[in-house]
Structures are given as structure tokens and as C-alpha cells.
TrEMBL record:
Residues 1-17 form the signal peptide. It comes from Acrocarpospora phusangensis. Pfam families: GHL10. This is Glycosyl hydrolase. InterPro entries: Divisome_Glycosyl_Hydrolase, GH, GHL10. Keywords: Hydrolase, Signal. One of its GO terms (molecular function) is hydrolase activity. SUPFAM superfamilies: (Trans)glycosidases (SSF51445). Residues 45-354 form the Glycosyl hydrolase-like domain.
């Protein structure tokens, strides 16, 4: 049987414990204020994975699966994320002006049924979000803003497709169909699509990938000259194109914040903004420039604060001359420093095992070790979900052991609403579990364990669990000690702790 003494914590920095050893009131400080946190032990870190629907890359595994099979596959991906102590997913809901949710604005995605516009018989998005939240995972809805279709034959599109109704919005380019970023109508449509999702679904974030103007391909020119003549206003073509993208980013940012202020908006840009040879402010690299070739100016988004976070896709190993991971991480850290924009690093898990430096199991773990030197780096996102599950070269096992052994709370982004949730009440042991009363507005609860009362109890070294708020909250303990529980809202603003000492026989 257990020898248990319950503790009632105040909302202040100190909680008082009744200890079984003395039967007297003992001081159990639970505040982490002023505590020095060793490198690599921060309790706040975004750990995410991208779930791509395009071409059935991650989910669903192929088109035409039954809803039950789609649900089963998805849940397995989420369970993999939870097993790895992840706390966020980025799921592609709009691969190419289509929808993996029920929409009056764009047709059903062909990657659900195999037929563009084909109704899958259910709306997946509420289930996708609910199951993520049930497991304590933040859900970011991932959109591609400008891709209209993977085929430039407009007549193949479903009736009512925006590109078919408004062919003047589109540009045919190297076999694909794109929306023209230079048209205000296009920006309005994309913003309307995203606002509709934010309004109707309980998403935690809106996410853009790195595709803006088309990547260099066959060398043909993107045919937007008519729009440039109409809207260019005397600017150079490149400056006009970058401004078009910046306008969309700002417009979407304003719409998201105006609809639900707690929904985050972020972008995962190509890993190189500009090279130092092109701009003294650029990185010491020699690769493609997102600024010059796809007209994506991440530094402008940082300066304007039109994004809450960035996830640069630094998909290269250490020591690669044209794009050295060791050169790019400090560059991005400096770019966001003091801005209030959170920085997470996009990791190329799909490259592991492909040869060169990627043939070494230690390469990716070394990336995360290097990240710890830069406090601006607040997490990592892995491409893609199927690779997290596949665990190439057992790299995920190493990451779990060396970097993700403990769970983590989400980073607090400066622009997001602040608050202090109510402190959990009724903390006690029951049947080998720590239980407490559910708190209104709590998304999850953090559980910390210390061997003795500790004023730094709620720092990352002591975090043992993040318990989702669904159902009756509980934590099954296997060892004794002083346990501290805090409530977390949807943004992981944290309450004061309530504490109890549990003594095992």
C-alpha cells in the first residue's frame, strides 16, 4: 500500500506540504523563477512533424481508402508522434487549391478518393484535429497558397473549381497550373479559403510551405507580364514579385489574428534567404536564393511581424560547402533575434540513409546538439511523418534517447495571448495514480517530479509528463517523490503548481 500525504498549493510561488516523515508543515517551493536551466534542458520546445497529403506521401497511404482505414492510418501516425515525445503536427489540408475538408470554396482533394472533387463520404478535418488534441498534439493546418493544379489542362478540373471559373487568375507554367501572385483577386481568394478554415475548425495554427513563385525548372519564364504591366507601378520585376508575396502573407496574418487571435501563423521557407555573395546580409552559402528565385523574403516577414514563427528547411548536412548546416542555423538565429518571431528548424529526416554525410546515424542528432547553442532555436520539425515512423538508421531512437527523453511544453510566442490558468485542485493519489480535478479551459497538465522539495521544481529537468485534458486527468507514477502539477491552456500558458509528496513502502 501507499503512504501518501496530500499537499494544497497556493497560487503563489510557494506551496505547503504535509510530510509523512514529520507530520508537520514543510515548505515545498514550486516556482522556477530565477532558476538557472542547464543547456539542453529547457522545458519548452516545439517538436513536430509534417504530414503530407500530396501524392499520398504520408496520409492517406493511397487514394480511395475507406474512412475507417483513413482514420486508422492517421491515428497510427499520431501515436508514433506521441511515442517520440512530439507535441505538434503540420498536416497538409490544401495541396493544390483543393481540400481534405468539406469546403464550399474549393473541391475535395483527389488524394482522398482518387477523383478530383470526389466526396469521401465524411469530413476528415474535425477527426484529424480532435485526435491530435486528444493526444496533446498541436494541430497546424498546412496550405500551399499558389499551386492551382498539378496538370495545366483546366478542362480536367472539377466544375466549380476556382481556376476553372476564373482562368484569368492562373498561369500555365511547365505543365502545371498556378495562381498568379500578382493579382489582388488571388490574394483575396487564398485569404478567404484560410479564414474559412480558421473560423469553422479548431486549428491551432495556419502554415505555409516553401512554394511561392515556382522553383526554377525547365528555364521558361513565368508568364505574369500582363499583371506586371498593370500592377508593377514602375518597380523592377523581382521587387514587385516579392511585394506580392509579402502582401499575401500580411493579408493572411491579419485575417487569422482577426478571426481567432490565439491561432498561430507561420511559414517554412527554403533554407537559404540569400547568399553572402549576393547580399552582405546573406549567409555564407552558395545555394539557391529564395529571395531572388522564388521571391520569398523571410527577413521582410520578420521585420513586419507578419509571421509568428518560421521553420526554415535546412535540409543539408554539416560541412556541405554550398549550404552548410553549421552556417545556416546561426544565420537564422541572428535573423529572428529580438524580433518576437519563433524559430524552429526544418529537418530532412527523409535524407537519412541517402548517402554522404546522411549515411552517418549521428548526423541528425548532431544537428539538434548544435541547435542548443542558439537560444533563438526553439524546436524542430521533421519531414516527413512516414520517416518518423520508419526510423531510418534508427535515428529517431537516438533522438529519443539523446534529445527527447522527456516531454516538452510548447514555446510561448510573444505575439500570442497571455494568461495564467487556474491552479489544479484536488491533487491526490488513488489506485497507483496521481489524480486531480479537471480545470476549465485547460488543454493539458504538466507533471513534474523532484526527490525533495525544490524551488526549481517546475523546470525542464523535472518534467515527467504532459497529460492531455481529455477525460479525467491522471498520471500513473512508478516511484515516489514530490509531484507538482500545473494546468496549461491551449497555448501552454502555465498555472502555478499544486504539489503532493508520495512515499512508496
Amino acid at each position: 500500500m501507499l503512504a501518501v500525504a496530500t499537499v494544497v498549493a497556493s497560487a503563489a510561488s510557494v506551496a505547503w506540504a504535509l510530510t509523512p516523515e514529520t507530520g508537520a508543515a514543510g515548505n515545498v517551493p514550486t516556482a522556477a523563477a530565477g532558476c538557472a536551466v542547464p543547456e539542453g534542458t529547457s522545458k519548452r520546445q516545439l517538436r513536430g512533424m509534417w504530414i503530407a497529403t500530396v501524392h499520398n506521401l504520408d496520409w492517406p497511404s493511397k487514394a480511395g481508402l475507406s474512412p475507417a482505414r483513413q482514420r486508422s492510418e492517421y491515428v497510427k501516425l499520431l501515436d508514433t508522434a506521441v511515442r517520440r515525445n512530439f507535441n505538434a503536427i503540420f498536416l497538409q489540408v490544401r495541396p493544390a487549391s483543393d481540400a481534405v475538408y468539406r469546403s464550399d470554396l474549393e473541391p475535395w482533394s483527389q488524394f482522398l478518393t482518387g477523383t478530383p472533387g470526389g466526396d469521401p463520404g465524411w469530413d476528415p478535418l474535425p477527426f484529424l484535429i480532435e485526435e491530435a488534441h486528444r493526444r496533446g498534439l498541436e494541430f497546424h493546418a498546412w496550405f500551399n497558397p499558389y499551386r492551382a493544379a498539378y496538370d495545366d489542362k483546366v478542362g480536367k478540373l472539377p466544375a466549380g473549381h476556382p481556376a476553372r471559373v476564373h482562368p484569368e487568375w492562373t498561369v500555365k507554367h511547365e505543365g502545371r497550373l498556378y495562381y498568379n501572385p500578382g493579382l489582388p483577386q488571388v490574394r483575396d481568394h487564398v485569404t478567404r479559403v484560410i479564414t474559412d478554415v480558421v473560423r469553422r475548425y479548431d486549428v491551432d495554427g495556419i502554415h505555409f510551405d516553401d512554394y511561392f513563385y515556382p522553383y526554377p525548372g525547365g528555364g521558361s519564364e513565368f508568364a505574369d507580364s500582363a499583371a506586371f504591366r498593370r500592377y508593377g507601378d514602375g518597380r523592377k520585376l523581382g521587387a514587385w514579385r516579392r511585394d506580392n508575396v509579402n502582401k499575401l502573407v500580411a493579408q493572411v496574418s491579419k485575417a487569422v489574428r482577426g478571426t481567432k487571435p490565439y491561432v498561430k501563423f507561420g511559414i517554412s521557407p527554403f533554407g537559404i534567404w540569400r547568399n553572402k555573395s549576393e547580399d552582405p546580409a546573406g549567409s555564407n552559402t552558395r545555394g539557391m536564393s529564395a529571395y531572388d528565385q522564388i521571391y520569398a523574403d523571410a527577413k521582410a516577414w520578420i521585420k513586419a511581424r507578419t509571421v509568428d514563427y518560421l521553420i526554415p528547411q535546412i535540409y543539408w548536412p554539416r560541412g556541405l560547402a554550398i549550404a552548410d548546416y553549421k552556417a545556416l542555423v546561426p544565420w537564422w538565429a541572428k535573423a529572428v533575434r529580438g524580433s518576437g518571431v519563433d524559430l524552429y528548424i526544418g529537418q530532412a529526416l527523409y535524407q537519412v540513409g541517402s548517402g554522404g554525410a546522411w549515411s552517418k546515424p549521428g548526423e541528425m542528432p548532431a544537428h539538434l546538439t548544435l541547435n542548443q547553442k542558439y537560444p533563438e532555436v526553439k524546436g524542430d520539425v521533421f519531414f516527413s511523418a512516414k520517416e518518423v515512423k520508419r526510423n531510418p538508421l534508427d535515428v529517431m531512437d537516438r533522438l529519443s534517447a539523446e534529445h527527447y527523453a522527456r516531454p516538452a511544453l510548447l514555446p510561448l510566442i510573444r505575439s500570442m495571448p497571455k494568461g495564467t490558468p487556474s491552479t489544479p485542485s484536488g491533487l491526490r493519489a488513488s489506485g497507483g495514480k496521481l489524480v486531480w480535478a479537471a480545470q476549465p479551459g485547460a488543454r493539458a497538465y504538466a507533471v513534474y517530479r523532484t526527490a525533495q522539495p525544490d524551488q526549481c521544481a517546475t523546470d525542464g529537468r523535472n518534467l515527467v509528463a504532459v497529460v492531455p485534458a481529455s477525460g479525467s486527468p491522471a498520471y500513473q507514477f512508478k516511484t515516489g517523490g514530490v509531484f507538482h502539477v500545473t494546468a496549461l491552456d491551449r497555448l501552454h500558458n502555465e498555472s502555478a503548481a499544486t504539489s503532493t509528496r508520495i512515499t512508496l513502502p
